[in-house]
Amino acid sequence: STSVLGLRYRNAQAGFQISVPIYTGGSITATERQSAASLSAARSDRELVLQKIRIQFETDWRMQAGLRERAGAAEAMVKAANEQKRAAELGVAAGVKTWADVGAAELLSARRQSDQVNLVQALLKAQSRLLSLLPIDDGSIDHWVGEVGRQSKQ
After folding, report:
1. Which residue in 77, 76, 60 sits closest to 131, CA to CA?
2. Which of 24, 36, 138, 142 could cross-link 134 (Cys pair, CB 3.0–4.6 Å)?
3. 123: exposed, middle or buried (C-beta count within 10 Å: 0-12, 13-18, 19+)?
4. What is the residue-level pLDDT of the chain in tens, covering all 154 positions?
5. What single string gives the DSSP state of each residue in the chain?
6. Which of 65, 61, 71 is nearest to 130 (CA)?
7. What angle, 0 to 180 degrees and rounded to 10, lies between the N-to-C axes of helices 99-131 and 140-152?
8. Euclidean distance between CA atoms 113 and 74, whole angstroms
9. Per-residue model confidence as pLDDT tens digits over 78-113
10. Backbone φ and ψ of 24, nearest 5°
């Protein structure tokens, strides 16, 4: 190159560039933290669902066990009420009871039968809630439906 004054000189340049980030991995670290938080939330949700299922199972199991006992007692009470009705009818035939006594015995028998039906209905609801906790491909539901059908014919 030539300068304004007519001097000649030679120019050469050399250089390098360094890029040093101040903070690396910001978006990656944030994504990792978000993923870890999502995983933790999913685990907590899973534990909550498992706890709810456990509580539902224990409650329904106890309920159906108690209802089975009560349904058995209700059946015995229906038989006893029917015996009272029969005794009242025999008393009318013997002349020691009235038709009012027979009517009262029939009313008692009807009430006992109604109580028994309500208990069996509650028992079936509790059992169906228990069955809803089983996997779909479990064969227990077929056995249960068969038992319900058998009991309904009695």
Report:
1. 60
2. 138
3. buried
4. 556 666 676 767 777 777 666 665 566 777 888 999 999 999 999 999 999 988 988 898 899 889 989 999 999 999 999 999 999 999 999 999 999 999 999 999 999 999 999 999 999 888 888 888 877 777 777 777 777 677 666 5
5. -B-TTS-B-------------SS--HHHHHHHHHHHHHHHHHHHHHHHHHHHHHHHHHHHHHHHHHHHHHHHHHHHHHHHHHHHHHHHHHHHHHTSS-HHHHHHHHHHHHHHHHHHHHHHHHHHHHHHHHHTTS-TT-THHHHHHHHHHHHHT-
6. 61
7. 170
8. 8
9. 999 999 999 999 999 999 999 999 999 999 999 999
10. -105, 150
Q: What's the token pair of residue 107?
A: 């009313």
Closest Cα to residue 56, out of 124, 116, 128? 128
Residue corresponding to tokens 């685990």 = 43
pTM: 0.61
